[in-house]
Amino acid sequence: MAQPRCKMIAGLGNPGQSYSRTRHNIGFLVVEAIAEKAGVDFNKTRFDAAFSRARIHGQDVFLVKPLSFMNRSGFPLQKLSAYFKISFPDIIVVHDDMDLPFGTLKIVQNRGAGGHNGVRSIMDAFGRKDCVRVRVGVGHPDEHGQVTGHVLGRFAPEEQAALNDTVTTAVNACSLILSKGVVQAMNQVNTRR
Question: Per the residue annotation, which of 24, 95, 116, 150 is the catalytic one?
Fold first, then answer.
């Protein structure tokens, strides 16, 4: 009998306290919320990643936070997935996205990196792009040159107020992908306004 396939949900962010509540770290916030809901914590480290293992919707799921800084996220994920025999399409990557208004979500698969260095690093490390991604909108800065300051900046007070709802929505999107499959999850999540 074939072994059931393990899944991975990887939240992208930067390690360290100084980055902990920044827009770029929304992936960490989401995967931490999933872990909390599943009653597990990030008590294991390997290949420059903190991770835990949980049962979610009857599936074996690795929850992962790469600790290698955003633009080098690919290496830890590639090593970890090879070690635990997780195939690339069974990986859900949760990351911030400036092209979406704050608080909006979009599930995509088999798409380019869209200028996101963390996503590009992952695609380079695996040599393919067919993982599932949950893009979490963090809005775009008004000034074009302020991109780095925007993603590494803390949430504005009005964003802070809506942050818990945004994280919950992203947690539910990941749950939907696991329980209903990516197509049905896309149909439900991507059509909401």
Answer: 24
